[in-house]
Design a protein that fits this description.
Elements: E1 2-5, H1 11-21, E2 25-28, E3 32-36, E4 49-52, H2 55-63, H3 67-70, E5 75-77, H4 80-89, E6 94-96, H5 101-110, E7 117-122, H6 129-135, E8 140-150, H7 156-164, E9 169-172, H8 175-187, E10 198-201, H9 204-207, E11 215-218, H10 224-228
Helix pairs in contact: 2-4
Length: about 230
């Protein structure tokens, strides 16, 4: 299959390597670019734990030089990939949820964690972890530590292959990613060519945006493995 990978780098490159090893052809076309924000060294305050919904949050902490002073805190991660990023960066006490914000909120609520939770987050977020924790009586200190900037157009290679109808499917890991993809397709007048492609989506919420594609499919689990099962 000829597969379009839309997630940001460096994750897109890792996904591409896996797909190539499986025998697929891959076009890497990130819809978002990671941009860390500068934050104060005391940004976590007196938090007793950290909650992360993306490996990018861990990268932002690394860029700001905050890992050494925070690595003693337990980290509650949204899923396996983010947990691995935390461990690789030096965090030692890492717990992982089932791949979405709701399961992360449940994990923290059931942990018996005392004290406030530091939530280094993106400027644009899906889900409301802070609100979910507040409903559980858990103080959440949310700080925006990075943003994902949208690209403004397709590469020439991607544009040509969409026009030619040679892209079998596109992988979408987030609601914002598929929205940006469709916005660019509309601006570049390539929407009409999407009916030859399948949209493989990490969640039902993402798949609901895939009406312009030939077919939209939702992963059974909100993970890369779940997406790969759709291939």
């Amino acid at each position: 299959m000829n597969i379009l990978v839309t997630r940001p780098q460096p994750q897109a490159g890792k996904t591409a390597q896996k797909l190539i090893a499986m025998g697929h052809d891959v076009i890497v076309e990130p819809m978002l670019r990671f941009q860390p924000l500068t934050v104060n060294r005391d940004v976590a305050g007196d938090a007793k734990a950290i909650a992360v919904t993306s490996a990018n949050a861990i990268e932002a902490l690394v860029v700001n030089g905050l890992v050494d002073q925070l690595q003693h805190l337990p980290v509650y991660s949204v899923g396996e990939a983010t947990a691995k990023a935390a461990e690789t960066s030096g965090f030692q006490n890492v717990f992982k949820a089932e791949g979405d914000v709701d399961s992360l909120g449940r994990l923290i609520a059931s942990s018996g964690q005392q004290g406030s939770v530091f939530y280094p987050a993106a400027v644009d977020r899906s889900g409301d972890l802070a609100g979910q924790l507040k409903q559980q009586g858990i103080a959440c200190h949310l700080t925006e530590v990075y943003q994902m900037a949208a690209v403004t157009g397709f590469s020439e290679t991607t544009r040509e292959q969409i026009h030619a109808g040679t892209v079998d499917c596109a992988l979408f890991y987030s609601l914002r990613t598929i929205q940006i993809f469709l916005m660019i397709a509309k601006l570049e007048k390539t929407t009409v060519f999407l009916n030859s492609m399948k949209a493989l989506c990490v969640s039902k919420r993402v798949e609901e945006q895939a009406g312009g594609f030939g077919e939209g499919l939702t992963a059974k689990t909100p993970s890369e493995d779940g997406l790969f099962e759709l291939l």
